[in-house]
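User: Fold this one for me? It's Recombinase family protein.
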Amino acid sequence: TDSGITFDKSFTDKCSGGSTKRPALEALKDYVREGDTIHVHSIDRLARNLVDLKQLINDWTNQGVSVRFHKENLSFNAGGSD
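Assistant: Here's what I get for Recombinase family protein.
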């Protein structure tokens, strides 16, 4: 990749980020495990409202998964420590 990061797997939805019921997002939720880091190009690619975004991030960090948004240079670390 351009950022020098190598990914184990990529999940891409062809539809809007306006819904959390998207095939690739559901596949990501099933795939991700404790110790993983989810890399997202931009916040608006994951969720279109703060309620959904907060829920996704809380679920993942509570599972021991970190989330990194590249465009915004923002990270949420596993266990809830930002």
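One thing worth pointing out: The chain has three helices and three strands.
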